[in-house]
């Protein structure tokens, strides 16, 4: 026998009480407050993000300006270095002229004090091969029948200039051997500006060092025996 079901009609349901309705209203109100709080936090977060984006943009602009200024400084430094190199080149040329017209003739007398009796001081001597190709140049060549001294002059002398002069002496020795010149060759360096380290290095390589002193110049002998090529 089938079970009997009793249908419930709406009119059978109990009507809501004041308490249940009020509780529902309070719950809805609480949910609305929570929603408002979340919306407020979201808006504040959006403002903060907008501020961050603005600050990032400002930093990017500042960085761009800094990069632009750095680029300007680099270009200006390069220009100044180029101008300095140009002036140094001009100064070296001027110093070469001073050596040619003022120092070179007096070197003969000065080196006599060191036992060298050079009879000739020739500025700007160029050595070439049979095809007239320049092999090397000597700023001032002091010479006699037995010995010759190659003097390199610079406004500012560096260790690299000293090395170049060593190479110049080696070339002179080879050139002399090819042309039956059995003389002994020595080296000297002259500079308006020469640091103590460069001076020590030049003396250690066996070179005489010529440096200005008041209205004349001094010659410093190398440590030990001067190097001969």
Short description:
This protein has 229 residues and is α/β, with parallel strands linked by helices. Helices cover 54% and strands 22% of the residues.
Describe this structure in words.
This protein is an alpha/beta fold and 229 residues long. It has a domain at 102-220: Trna Endonuclease, Chain: A, domain 1. Helix content is 54%, strand content 22%. The protein has a six-stranded mixed sheet, sandwiched between helices. The relative contact order is 0.08. Residues 1-10 have low confidence and may be disordered.
Inertia-based shape = rod-shaped
Question: What is the architecture of the domain at 102-220 at the second tier of CATH?
Answer: 3-Layer(aba) Sandwich
Which blocks of ≥5 consecutive residues have pLDDT under 50? 1-10
The sequence of SSEs as H and E is HEEEHEHEE
How much helix is in the residues? 40-55%
Overall structural class, as computed from helix and strand content, comes to: alpha/beta
Measured distance between first and last alpha carbons: 137 Å
Return Rg in Å.
46 Å
